[in-house]
């Protein structure tokens, strides 16, 4: 197995009960990220109760040097699954995307290029969906949540709910961890003194199945999360720039 220095990019995919979506998405990720080699794909199974574990085991046997699989004994939520993957990642850059096929991995190289072009003080390239394929209720809730969040946090991000992101692993590890962290990353990355860049990504229908995370959980519990992130930003102090001490 390659060591951390040999990996350029880690692609982290959180899944829960997505057995039918795993094989086609892994194939797309492998093809889309070929130019970013060497890279790895890390699937985090968030307590699936369907055939997801078997689908992942079969694919790992076919791609032993590419696919890594981690599993939560019970479901802990999408943010926890993302964090598990990032902690295990060996690349300096991490890409995330949802495991249902709605996020097209073909956009990962463009996000990585946008982050690199912005320089070392940029910490996150955030995808922003166009041509949304979600149902009407979900889109209305998302529009309301994004509007309220943007007015309160002023994070200059139209769509923080998009799972397509590329970020520096070291920057992520500086962020406070809590449930729904992945939905507030632009504001929290900026809080740490790093720039956030954006790129439009085309949404598409999920491959198979249905969403495993509740709409109302995201909307109403998100209000409490929003209040907490607002407090964290208000309590932020200047981020110190550390330089080496002069030797005598």
UniProtKB/TrEMBL annotation:
CDD domains reported for this sequence: DPM_DPG-synthase_like (cd04179)
Keyword Transcription attributed: no
Organism listed in the record: Methylobacterium tarhaniae
UniProt superkingdom: Bacteria
Record protein name field: Dolichol-phosphate mannosyltransferase
Gene Ontology cellular component annotations, sorted alphabetically: plasma membrane
Gene Ontology MF term list: undecaprenyl-phosphate 4-deoxy-4-formamido-L-arabinose transferase activity
Keywords, sorted A to Z: Cell membrane, Glycosyltransferase, Lipopolysaccharide biosynthesis, Membrane, Transferase, Transmembrane, Transmembrane helix
Residue ranges annotated for the Glycosyltransferase 2-like domain, each copy included: 10-172
GO biological process, one term: lipopolysaccharide biosynthetic process
